[in-house]
Design goal:
Layout lengths: L1 E3 L7 H9 L5 E3 L4 H4 L1 H27 L9 H33 L50 H5 L3
Parallel strand pairs: 1-2
Length: 164
């Protein structure tokens, strides 16, 4: 699971929950979200454009039906948002399914972890097929920088409680 470097994402409780559910966390370093988060790299901009279109269509239809959209309640606005997000997402997934899939491959979130598919990486600012990540599971952990919050988390709740 990829997530940003926010402190609340790296608490022992969160990391233990990942471990308990066999989830390997992938930390996106500060300042790199725009390069490594699939939604930021490929999905958000075209989805927001589609969302604007659906919002305009929804509001136009309500005005044509005689509603004064300037006097909408918070509840009516929430209903509109729920409706247009759902409709836009359905269309987006139907039309841009390959873009969504590609964005996860480009940043390395949906490639083999043994390094055999590193050539599929396409990260903005890097030459195509670079960087090479390799098999991260075989990295010599004694020679790596330890990231605070990602040290080994104890399995026993009593041990975990001392870290929380």
């Amino acid at each position: 699971m990829a997530f940003d470097a926010a402190a609340f994402h790296k608490t022992p409780e969160i990391l233990q929950t990942f471990r308990n559910n066999y989830i390997i966390p992938a930390l996106v370093p500060s300042g790199c979200t725009g390069l490594l988060q699939p939604l930021d790299t490929a999905v958000n901009k075209p989805f927001k454009e589609l969302l604007r279109e659906y919002t305009e269509l929804y509001m136009d239809a309500k005005e044509d039906a005689g509603e004064d959209i300037e006097k909408w309640t918070v509840s009516q606005k929430r209903i509109m948002v729920t409706h247009v997000v759902g409709e836009a997402w359905i269309q987006f997934c139907n039309e841009k399914k390959s873009l969504i899939k590609k964005s996860f491959v480009d940043v390395g979130l949906n490639i083999a972890s043994d390094g055999s598919e590193d050539s599929k990486l396409s990260i903005k600012g890097y030459e195509h097929r670079k960087p090479e990540i390799g098999d991260w599971s075989k990295i010599d952990k004694d020679n790596c920088i330890e990231l605070k919050g990602f040290q080994e988390i104890p399995l026993e709740k009593e041990e975990l409680d001392k870290y929380i």
